[in-house]
Amino acid sequence: GENVEQHPSTLSVQEGDSAVIKCTYSDSASNYFPWYKQELGKRPQLIIDIRSNVGEKKDQRIAVTLNKTAKHFSLHITETQPEDSAVYFCAAILIQGAQKLVFGQGTRLTINP
Amino acid sequence: DGGITQSPKYLFRKEGQNVTLSCEQNLNHDAMYWYRQDPGQGLRLIYYSQIVNDFQKGDIAEGYSVSREKKESFPLTVTSAQKNPTAFYLCASSTFGQGAYNEQFFGPGTRLTVL
């Protein structure tokens, strides 16, 4: 089955700097990669996603890149702000059949003022 | 944030007792999911259901049971057979269709503590 590894487990950056979170997946059949953000005490929410036929996707200050050959994908946050502090989860899924999401272990991002 | 509710928010249980966590959604979603969240381990799938009266085991189903008698409801029972039940439990729901990602929307979670 699919296995997703996420690094780092914790990340601390100065406000205004960039943050990068990396994930690797094992099943080459996975074809969709969502990222969820979970603020303290709140539920996870989808913030950006990418399909396997796309190399990069941007949405304002966040972007996701995908290297299908290496089975790597990354979340990039630029010009970080205090409200970016949260736990971020990457996930992988095959969007045929049962659509079972497999999550990475999570990254706790702290933005220092 | 509305649409999926979980109750209770906090739950305490004595060892050896079964306990049922509630999950209700009014989004008319076909699929529902239960995840367990532990520190440093992300979210792991316990059970999922794509239609009423049918459900499938996820990656960590041992010690848990579910039912799906109504489209809106997907209760999870944590049985005494679950060796380490203390965790944060998240319910999610989504539409169900092929060829596109059916975004999973999460409930607020239930924190279960076994005393």
**Class derived from helix and strand content of chain A:** mainly beta
What is the mean predicted local confidence, pLDDT of chain A?
94
Question: Rough shape of chain A?
Answer: globular
Which bin fits the share of residues in helices of chain B?
under 10%
Strand content of chain B: over 45%
In N-to-C order, the SSE pattern of chain A is EEEEEEEEEEE
Which runs of chain B of at least 5 residues are low in confidence (pLDDT < 50)? none
Distance between the termini of chain A: 41 Å
- How many distinct helices of chain A? 0
Write the layout of secondary structure elements.
The complex is a heterodimer of chains A (113) and B (115).
Chain A: E1 4-7, E2 10-14, E3 19-25, E4 32-38, E5 45-51, E6 56-59, E7 62-67, E8 72-77, E9 86-92, E10 102-103, E11 107-112
Parallel strand pairs in A: 2-11
Antiparallel strand pairs in A: 1-3, 3-8, 4-5, 4-9, 6-7, 7-8, 9-10, 9-11
Chain B: E1 4-7, E2 10-13, E3 19-25, E4 31-37, E5 43-51, E6 54-57, E7 64-66, E8 76-78, E9 87-94, E10 105-106, E11 110-114
Brief characterization of the structure:
Helices cover 0% and strands 54% of the residues of chain A. Chain A is mostly beta strands and 113 residues long.
Describe this structure in words.
The complex is a heterodimer of chains A (113) and B (115). Chain A is an all-beta fold. In chain A, 0% of the residues lie in helices and 54% in strands. Chain A has strands at residues 4-7, 10-14, 19-25, 32-38, 45-51, 56-59, 62-67, 72-77, 86-92, 102-103, 107-112. In chain A, strands 2, 4, 5, 9, 10 and 11 form a six-stranded mixed beta sheet that branches. A five-stranded antiparallel beta sheet of chain A has the order 1-3-8-7-6, with no helix packed on it. Chain A is globular. Chain A starts with a strand and ends with a strand. With 115 residues, chain B is mainly β. Chain B is globular and about 45 Å long. The mean pLDDT of chain B is 92. At the A-B interface, strand 5 and strand 10 of A face strand 5 of B.
